[in-house]
Amino acid sequence: NDAICANKGDKACYVTGEDVTLNVFGGGDKVEIYKDSKLYKEIVINRKDTNLLLKKYPQGDYQARVVTGNKKSDYTRWKVIDVKVRIDKEKNRIYFSSANATPVYYEFCTISGSRPVNGKRIYAAEFTKDQIKNGFVTVNAPTAPTKGKLGCSFVKVHFECDYGMVINKPVNWFK
After folding, report:
1. pTM of the predicted model, to two decimals?
2. pLDDT of 68-107, one tens digit each?
3. Predicted pLDDT at 174
4. b/e per residue 56-76 (b: at least 16 CB within 10 A)
5. CB 81 within 8 A of CB 158
6. CA count, 13 A, side-chain hemisphere, 141
7. Which of 61, 139, 163, 170 is paired with 157 by a 20 to 30 Å CA distance?
8. What is Dmax (Cα atoms) for the chain?
9. Which residues contact 43 (CB under 8 A, 6 or more apart)?
10. E strands in 9-110
Protein backbone atom coordinates (compact mmCIF):
# COMPACT_ATOMS: atom_id res chain seq x y z
CA ASN A 1 0.00 0.00 0.00
CA ASP A 2 1.66 3.20 -1.11
CA ALA A 3 -1.23 5.56 -0.32
CA ILE A 4 -1.62 5.26 3.47
CA CYS A 5 0.15 3.60 6.37
CA ALA A 6 0.00 3.76 10.16
CA ASN A 7 3.19 5.29 11.58
CA LYS A 8 4.28 1.99 13.16
CA GLY A 9 3.59 0.12 9.92
CA ASP A 10 0.77 -1.99 8.55
CA LYS A 11 -0.75 -4.40 11.09
CA ALA A 12 0.76 -2.51 14.03
CA CYS A 13 -0.26 -2.56 17.69
CA TYR A 14 -0.94 0.42 19.92
CA VAL A 15 -1.94 0.64 23.59
CA THR A 16 -5.12 2.50 24.61
CA GLY A 17 -4.28 6.13 25.22
CA GLU A 18 -1.48 6.09 22.63
CA ASP A 19 -1.88 8.35 19.59
CA VAL A 20 -1.80 6.86 16.08
CA THR A 21 -0.51 8.83 13.12
CA LEU A 22 -1.66 7.89 9.63
CA ASN A 23 0.85 8.80 6.93
CA VAL A 24 -1.03 9.73 3.75
CA PHE A 25 1.02 9.91 0.55
CA GLY A 26 0.01 11.65 -2.67
CA GLY A 27 -3.19 13.30 -1.47
CA GLY A 28 -6.76 12.22 -1.94
CA ASP A 29 -10.20 13.55 -1.02
CA LYS A 30 -10.69 11.83 2.32
CA VAL A 31 -9.62 9.02 4.60
CA GLU A 32 -12.18 6.47 5.74
CA ILE A 33 -11.47 4.89 9.10
CA TYR A 34 -13.23 1.68 10.09
CA LYS A 35 -13.41 0.30 13.62
CA ASP A 36 -14.37 -3.35 14.04
CA SER A 37 -15.47 -3.43 10.35
CA LYS A 38 -17.86 -0.45 10.64
CA LEU A 39 -17.26 3.06 9.29
CA TYR A 40 -16.02 5.00 12.32
CA LYS A 41 -14.86 8.33 10.92
CA GLU A 42 -14.15 10.20 7.69
CA ILE A 43 -11.42 12.83 7.54
CA VAL A 44 -11.16 15.30 4.65
CA ILE A 45 -7.63 15.69 3.25
CA ASN A 46 -6.55 19.20 2.22
CA ARG A 47 -2.84 18.73 1.34
CA LYS A 48 -0.80 16.56 -1.04
CA ASP A 49 1.23 14.73 1.63
CA THR A 50 -0.07 14.75 5.16
CA ASN A 51 0.06 13.07 8.54
CA LEU A 52 -3.26 12.58 10.28
CA LEU A 53 -3.03 12.43 14.08
CA LEU A 54 -5.63 10.17 15.68
CA LYS A 55 -5.71 11.01 19.39
CA LYS A 56 -6.46 8.31 21.94
CA TYR A 57 -8.73 6.02 19.96
CA PRO A 58 -10.56 3.34 22.00
CA GLN A 59 -9.61 -0.33 21.86
CA GLY A 60 -10.52 -2.18 18.70
CA ASP A 61 -9.47 -3.37 15.27
CA TYR A 62 -8.99 -0.52 12.80
CA GLN A 63 -8.40 -0.10 9.10
CA ALA A 64 -8.18 3.03 6.98
CA ARG A 65 -8.04 3.82 3.30
CA VAL A 66 -7.70 6.88 1.06
CA VAL A 67 -10.64 7.80 -1.17
CA THR A 68 -10.06 9.85 -4.33
CA GLY A 69 -13.22 10.30 -6.37
CA ASN A 70 -14.43 6.76 -7.08
CA LYS A 71 -11.03 5.19 -6.36
CA LYS A 72 -10.15 3.63 -3.02
CA SER A 73 -6.70 2.60 -1.84
CA ASP A 74 -5.80 -0.60 -0.07
CA TYR A 75 -6.26 -0.58 3.69
CA THR A 76 -3.69 -0.03 6.37
CA ARG A 77 -4.59 -1.96 9.52
CA TRP A 78 -3.82 -1.57 13.21
CA LYS A 79 -5.13 -2.58 16.61
CA VAL A 80 -5.56 -0.56 19.76
CA ILE A 81 -4.99 -2.95 22.65
CA ASP A 82 -6.55 -2.45 26.07
CA VAL A 83 -4.05 -3.29 28.83
CA LYS A 84 -4.47 -2.90 32.57
CA VAL A 85 -1.66 -3.58 35.03
CA ARG A 86 -1.53 -2.79 38.73
CA ILE A 87 0.57 -4.00 41.59
CA ASP A 88 -0.05 -4.90 45.23
CA LYS A 89 3.31 -4.62 46.99
CA GLU A 90 1.85 -5.93 50.28
CA LYS A 91 0.89 -9.25 48.66
CA ASN A 92 3.76 -9.20 46.10
CA ARG A 93 1.23 -9.46 43.25
CA ILE A 94 1.02 -8.15 39.75
CA TYR A 95 -2.57 -7.90 38.45
CA PHE A 96 -3.12 -7.78 34.70
CA SER A 97 -5.95 -7.89 32.18
CA SER A 98 -6.82 -7.09 28.60
CA ALA A 99 -10.06 -7.23 26.66
CA ASN A 100 -8.36 -7.90 23.33
CA ALA A 101 -4.89 -9.39 23.96
CA THR A 102 -3.36 -12.26 25.92
CA PRO A 103 -0.87 -11.59 28.72
CA VAL A 104 2.34 -13.51 27.99
CA TYR A 105 5.01 -12.58 30.54
CA TYR A 106 6.08 -9.98 33.08
CA GLU A 107 9.43 -8.48 33.82
CA PHE A 108 11.05 -6.20 36.36
CA CYS A 109 13.34 -3.63 34.80
CA THR A 110 15.49 -0.64 35.62
CA ILE A 111 14.77 2.94 34.69
CA SER A 112 16.69 2.34 31.44
CA GLY A 113 14.40 -0.59 30.63
CA SER A 114 17.04 -3.31 30.99
CA ARG A 115 16.59 -6.42 33.12
CA PRO A 116 19.48 -6.62 35.57
CA VAL A 117 20.60 -9.97 36.86
CA ASN A 118 20.57 -10.60 40.61
CA GLY A 119 23.03 -13.44 41.02
CA LYS A 120 21.83 -15.85 38.33
CA ARG A 121 18.19 -14.83 38.40
CA ILE A 122 16.72 -12.53 35.79
CA TYR A 123 13.47 -10.96 36.93
CA ALA A 124 11.14 -12.07 34.15
CA ALA A 125 8.78 -15.01 33.74
CA GLU A 126 6.04 -16.30 31.48
CA PHE A 127 2.53 -16.58 32.88
CA THR A 128 0.95 -19.98 33.43
CA LYS A 129 -2.56 -20.72 32.19
CA ASP A 130 -3.86 -20.50 35.78
CA GLN A 131 -2.21 -17.12 36.33
CA ILE A 132 -3.75 -15.80 33.11
CA LYS A 133 -7.15 -17.17 34.17
CA ASN A 134 -6.85 -15.61 37.66
CA GLY A 135 -5.48 -12.32 36.34
CA PHE A 136 -2.54 -12.09 38.73
CA VAL A 137 0.83 -13.55 39.63
CA THR A 138 2.55 -13.63 43.01
CA VAL A 139 6.22 -12.74 42.62
CA ASN A 140 9.45 -12.69 44.54
CA ALA A 141 9.97 -8.98 44.16
CA PRO A 142 13.51 -7.72 43.73
CA THR A 143 15.16 -5.58 46.37
CA ALA A 144 14.97 -1.83 46.06
CA PRO A 145 17.78 0.01 44.33
CA THR A 146 20.33 1.56 46.69
CA LYS A 147 22.83 4.31 46.17
CA GLY A 148 25.53 3.00 43.88
CA LYS A 149 23.64 -0.25 43.12
CA LEU A 150 21.25 -0.50 40.21
CA GLY A 151 18.09 -2.39 41.12
CA CYS A 152 14.79 -3.27 39.47
CA SER A 153 12.10 -0.67 39.94
CA PHE A 154 9.49 -1.05 37.21
CA VAL A 155 7.04 -3.79 36.23
CA LYS A 156 6.16 -4.41 32.58
CA VAL A 157 3.63 -6.92 31.31
CA HIS A 158 3.84 -8.06 27.69
CA PHE A 159 0.53 -8.75 25.91
CA GLU A 160 0.13 -10.50 22.56
CA CYS A 161 -2.46 -10.32 19.78
CA ASP A 162 -2.46 -11.48 16.17
CA TYR A 163 -0.53 -8.35 15.07
CA GLY A 164 2.27 -8.64 17.63
CA MET A 165 3.01 -7.54 21.20
CA VAL A 166 2.49 -4.45 23.35
CA ILE A 167 3.74 -3.50 26.79
CA ASN A 168 1.89 -1.57 29.46
CA LYS A 169 3.20 1.76 30.67
CA PRO A 170 5.77 0.60 33.27
CA VAL A 171 4.49 0.59 36.88
CA ASN A 172 6.88 1.72 39.59
CA TRP A 173 7.31 -1.03 42.21
CA PHE A 174 9.44 1.17 44.52
CA LYS A 175 8.55 4.78 45.23
Report:
1. 0.85
2. 999 999 999 999 999 999 999 899 999 999 999 999 999 8
3. 77
4. ebebbbbbbbbbeeeeebebb
5. no
6. 18
7. 61
8. 65
9. 30, 31, 33, 52
10. 12-15, 20-24, 30-35, 38-44, 50-54, 60-68, 71-72, 76-81, 84-88, 93-97, 102-109
